[in-house]
Design a protein that fits this description.
It is a single chain. The protein is of the alpha/beta class. Helices cover 42% and strands 14% of the residues. The protein has helices at 2-12, 18-27, 43-46, 74-81, 95-105, 117-129, 144-151, 170-176, 199-208, 221-224, 262-271, 279-290, 292-315, 336-345, 370-392; strands at 61-62, 112-115, 135-140, 156-161, 181-187, 213-217, 238-243, 256-259, 319-320, 327-331, 348-349, 351-352, 362-366. A 7-stranded mixed sheet has the order 2-8-7-6-5-3-4, with helices on both faces. The structure holds 4'-deoxy-4'-aminopyridoxal-5'-phosphate (PMP).
């Protein structure tokens, strides 16, 4: 590293970079955050931390990120296998696929934007609408990326804490609406709790904040079955996000969508990269949508497994929250980190949510197929027995 730095600075000597060369020579190395001369990002970005989801070495039972735990539709596999490398020389064209998705949702193509996962939809929506002085209302605990993308804007995120039951904090959210409210982001079902807001609640929130966008993130819609997608274009401030990362099993392709009234979506399209959804993802979308039999099978499998898994959690005497999604939040208590480690030792990855607001001691466990969850139940029973044994020592 020091050698590389000296080679670099040698090349720069006698050029306009002389002050930089002296700064590097003074400190002896290139500091990772730059030096006093290097360009600084906006103050908001300087205050942020890098977010690294705890991925890595996940070739085992993945019950940590709420993905599909098995595979996508075989129809997608076939299309992928048939893609020519020649087709990769072209920039992706999303218009036609957006029209197919819109038709599937019963919407007009102008009301749907495909995105690089819902993450891009959230990011671009926030970049498009949030400015200094604006407020983003966020019922918490919720999906981490809302706060991260908000913290890169000049707006303020206003957390609205759920009670101990982790139910949607409806009354508190209504009371928090101000003239400065610009976006209200609601994951429905919510993560990590699995709890939901009702359609009537969402309608009332939209009506009480006509000057704000109500973003309903339906990432886990297929496991819940209720939606407000049919109200897109009817309620003027409603936007709905969906992902192909969960039930469809395409998290690695990065595919999501943002639906909303044309008047709002055309602002978003100004900020959205025209090529952010790549051609492999676009090619896979129509077969994924068309194979409803596969989707129904996978969702049915998860719902049956969820019932069995919840019963197993009850049997070991742990508290959990009623979930309408493909995961269950479980109260492990003070020894949550040890529990996560014990499960990992038994080949099952689960996600510690202890650092989420109001979630100390709570671990989120994704629900996969019945067969996989039988394996998870064995690991759970053994982990709890080990925790109880250690506790007695
Ligand atoms: N919204 C919610 C509520 C989520 O839990 C997640 C992923 N865990 C996302 C959005 C992100 O989805 P995507 O993979 O489409 O970016």
């Amino acid at each position: 590293m020091a050698e590389a730095a000296s080679t670099n600075t040698a090349l720069l000597k006698g050029t306009g970079f002389s002050p930089y060369v002296s700064a590097v020579e003074e400190t002896g190395a290139l500091a990772p955050e730059g030096n006093s001369l290097s360009p600084k990002p906006r103050a908001r970005v300087q205050a942020m931390n890098e977010y690294h989801p705890p991925l890595g070495c996940r070739d085992t039972l993945r019950l940590d990120f709420n993905e599909n735990t098995l595979a996508c539709s075989p129809a997608v596999h076939e299309v992928l296998a048939g893609i020519s490398t020649a087709s990769l020389t072209r920039y992706p064209e999303r218009g036609q696929i957006e029209a197919i998705v819109a038709a599937h949702l019963g919407l007009d193509p102008a009301q749907v934007a495909l995105t690089n996962g819902v993450d891009e939809a959230i990011h671009v929506l926030f970049e498009t609408f949030l400015e200094a002085g604006d407020e983003l209302l966020l019922p918490v605990p919720t999906y981490t990326m809302y706060e991260i993308y908000a913290s890169a804007t000049e707006a303020n995120a206003v957390p609205i804490l759920a009670g101990d039951d982790l139910e949607f904090p409806y009354e508190r959210l209504l009371a928090a609406i101000t003239p400065r409210t610009k976006i209200i982001a609601i994951a429905n079902p919510n993560s990590p709790s699995g709890t939901v807001a009702t359609r009537a609640q969402l309608l009332e929130i939209a009506a009480r904040a006509p000057h704000a966008i109500l973003l309903v993130d339906e990432a886990y819609f297929h496991f819940f079955g209720e939606t407000v997608m049919d109200l897109v274009g009817v309620i003027p401030n409603l936007m709905v996000a969906r992902t192909f990362s969960k039930a469809y099993g395409l998290a690695g392709l990065r595919l999501g969508l943002l639906a909303g009234p044309v008047e709002l979506l055309h602002w978003v399209r100004r900020v959205l990269s025209p090529y952010s959804v790549n051609s492999l993802a676009l090619a896979c979308l129509p077969p994924a949508l068309a194979d409803t039999a596969y989707l129904d099978w996978y969702v049915g499998e998860v719902l049956a497994a969820r019932t069995e898994f919840e019963a197993a959690i009850d049997a070991v005497g742990l508290r959990h929250w009623p979930s309408q999604a493909n995961f269950v939040l479980v109260d492990i208590g003070p020894r949550h980190a040890e529990f996560v480690r014990l499960m990992r030792d038994r080949g099952v990855l689960v996600r510690d949510r202890s650092s989420d607001p109001g979630c100390d001691g709570r671990v989120r466990i994704t629900v996969g197929t019945r067969e996989q969850m039988q394996e998870a139940i064995v690991a759970l029973n053994k982990a709890m027995a080990a925790l109880n044994r250690n506790g007695e020592e």
